[in-house]
Amino acid sequence: ALMAVPGDVDIVIAAELLEAGRAVQRGLVTPDRTTLIASSHRAYAIAEKSALGDGRSSSEDTVAALESAARRFVCADMQDLAEQNKTVISASLFGALAGSGALPFSREQFEAAIRATEKSVSENLAAFAAGFTVAANPTNEVPQAQPPEPLAWPRSENPAIAALLARAE
After folding, report:
1. Cys-Cys with 78: which of 17, 55, 92, 100 at CB 3.0–4.6 Å?
2. What is the pLDDT of residues 50-75, one digit of tens each?
């Protein structure tokens, strides 16, 4: 639906982990009804990027909350699956939708829809197959947090600025 109603959603597909979290917060995902399919890769929220120090929220806590919020939860790095097959994330998410069994269509019917586009068919079918396999055998991977990269201290060729930078350092 263009205007989904909280508590009345059968399937939610999120192209990023915190996007799935926001769908749960809005009440669109419910444990009695919703199949939630999410990519585990992270695009950090503004609050995470702007915090002093490491402001990232816990991926482990997010995945645990998503698992308890949905009737069925499928989570894997769909972006990586797409990139491995030189296509876009929608192809791997489409495969995960098919593999979840949430819709009454066969794998062949989903693949026929990809073939009908006549665009990047082999790449899209490969990413679709990867997403299908993940959904058919879900492990709900949790992305491993990487420590933030330390910022390099600025340098300058100008002696006056170099002296100020050395003093600040």
Report:
1. 92
2. 777 777 777 788 888 999 999 999 99
Could you give the CA distance from residue 8 to residue 124 in angstroms, rounded to a whole number? Answer: 30
- CA–CA gap between residue 129 and residue 108 (Å, rounded): 11
Q: What pTM did the predictor assign? A: 0.77
Environment class of residue 29 by beta-carbon count within 10 Å: exposed (0-12), middle (13-18) or buried (19+)?
Answer: buried
Cα-flanking dihedrals φ and ψ of residue 35, to 5°? -90, 120
CA dihedral 101, 107, 109, 113 (to 10 degrees): 100
3-state secondary structure of 39: strand
Give the Cα separation of 157 and 129 in Å (integer): 54
Tell which wins on pLDDT, 60 or 140. 60
6-29 pLDDT tens trace: 989 999 999 999 899 999 999 999
